[in-house]
Amino acid sequence: MMTAENLWPDVASIRTQLLLTWSPHSDLHNQAYIAAVQATENFLIANGTGVIYTIGPKLFEDVFHVKRRKDMTLAMAIDYTASMTDDIDAVKTKVIELLTNTVGSPNEPADYVLSLFHDPESWNFAYKYVDGYEMINKVQTIEAESGDNTDCDELAAAGMLAAIQLMRDDSPLYVFTDADAKDADRLQEVINAAKAKNISVTSLLTSQCTRRKRSALGRPERSASSLSFFQQIAEATGGSVYETDKENIGNVLDTVIGETFPSSEIIIDSFNLSSAETADQNITVDSTITVLKISVTGSSAETDVDIYYANGTLETYTSGKSTRIYTSSGETIISIQHPPGSIMKLRRNVINDWKVNITAQSSIKIDSELLEHTDTSEMVSLKGSPIMDSNYTVALSVYGFGSNGTCHTIALTDSTGNVISSHEASQLQRDFDTLCAATFRTPYAEFRVKLYGNDDSGRPFTRKLSELYKPASVELIITASTDDVIIGKERLIGYEVKNCGTVTETYQVSISDDHSFVHGSTTVGYTLLSGDGANGTFAVKPTTPSVIFSYTIDVSMVSNGDVQQSITRKLVVTDVERPDCTVVHTDGLCGISSLNTANCSLYPWTALAEVTFSGTLLDSISSTVGMSVKLSHVNITGLSTGPITVNISGDCCTPSLHVNVIDVDGFISQCGLSFGDGQSVQSVEVVSEPSGSSVSY
């Protein structure tokens, strides 16, 4: 239950640190403390009538910025021996990036643990922090150090155990090392401690330790016993083991930590500043931003960058809700929780070339889509890159906008942040989001999309989309079914390439897939005049069942090697072949003279259809005209493999029909028959001769 005591710190415990003689009324402090706690509890709770119950806990948390952090620990055990020098810099850079994305967000953990391990064990240290900024500052200070022992193995088990001891239950531990475990004999001790708290242990292993044995190719190899140590712990605790290097460790961290503590960062703005630009830069902060993060690459110290609020106040980073650090990669990172909605200013104290990236945690989220205009004036989702100097519509789905939020401008910016063009935005309020859209003509340069508007409180806001669009001079269209691919059966995939440029170009089409299912040539060249196109096909033949595989078609210009278009599609491989009905033979014709009710029954027809299927059972085979035609085939009960033949017979009273084949999972295949060239049967009245009359010829 939420009470005043666990919402605010114990004021009395602070006052007891003061000498009684420092306050003439110190004898009344305890009474004042009790009265203050009681008054606060009455205001908040008051037997179910306090403000928390009146406005609801969710609104209370929003108004008073009360965060319900994840009830788990984010823990890291890092090998800081000399051989880890390069790796530690890469780890620090990525960990700080992830932490600054997480601090203050809804996904922030309840606390943090940092365990540093070395050899000897007296060099091992473990720290626990509730404040994410303190964790960031500690990570920033990590430096690789040479120890007394020069062997390669380090005390990884001791580092893990020190972290586990400080962690909450049901939390993840991430281990970073380049060395074998010197204390591998403590394997079961680590497993027992982790399982007792339901802690998953994931290890990220690099291969830099110079004492490690080398393979025949000269590359360092990790010993089998080392892999076994980390692998056994991972398997026993539900973790994983990743072998990586400093160049790729960031991608691995994004994956493994991002799954548990996902970042919901949005981009406010990004731009480059040359040394010739000395003016302050405006930062638009709207009322929905809970954490603002400013990254400056190219600075030489954290003091190179200052932030000023709209009233001219300098941010001093003393409130406990903000921090400014300088990383070993040459980046200054500023993080501010709950900044006031206003126009803040970024000031340069040292003039260098900078790259500035401004991100935030915010309730306003945006999904984007480029729509291309078809010949029938329809708009469909663009696949691949937009074509230069062509019309497109950008559609932005804005979530968390509020009923009073407005969008007024959609701009295209170049890769350095400069505005290429601005377009008035159309706005449509929908049930769950707001649609903001604008039509534009594609520039010849790379571009991003940026939205300007006002939030629900009327304050200005900006959002920049992360995707970088690269206009192309060639169009690529894939003409292929998206149905599941049958294992062992070949599927042809077609494509069309069209030169949309103004001069003749030679293009190379490259085809690849992630399971080696593509058969035949994987590169084809086309020389196309302006406006001309060419068609091609390639085959895929899956050999592995129950997988999802991807194939990619790239189109590059032979003159410079630049990839102009790249489209990836996914297909499911199955060993279940759904029913497929094909007409293989027909006999009979329903001419004009037969298409009337007087004599249509005098003109019979027959047909033969084949139904292929495998790995499924058929539920029924029927026609769309019921008993008007006759269908005959083998008994399909329990039959799981085709093909089967269906004999169909009727007359010109039914000149057209469809045969429906349905399997037990509801998949339908149809094959059509038409004997009357699309004509229908006309109704005529049969006239009989009067009784007793005769006709002579």
TrEMBL record:
It comes from the Eukaryota. InterPro entries: HMCN1-like_VWA, VWA7, vWFA_dom_sf. Pfam families: VWA_4. Keywords: Secreted, Signal. SUPFAM superfamilies: vWA-like. The keyword Membrane does not apply. It is found in: Secreted. Its main location: secreted. Transmembrane segments: none annotated. Residues 74-246 form the Hemicentin-1-like von Willebrand factor A domain. PANTHER family: NG37, VON WILLEBRAND FACTOR A DOMAIN-CONTAINING PROTEIN 7. This is Hemicentin-1-like von Willebrand factor A domain-containing protein. It comes from Mytilus galloprovincialis. The lineage of its organism: Eukaryota, Metazoa, Spiralia, Lophotrochozoa, Mollusca.
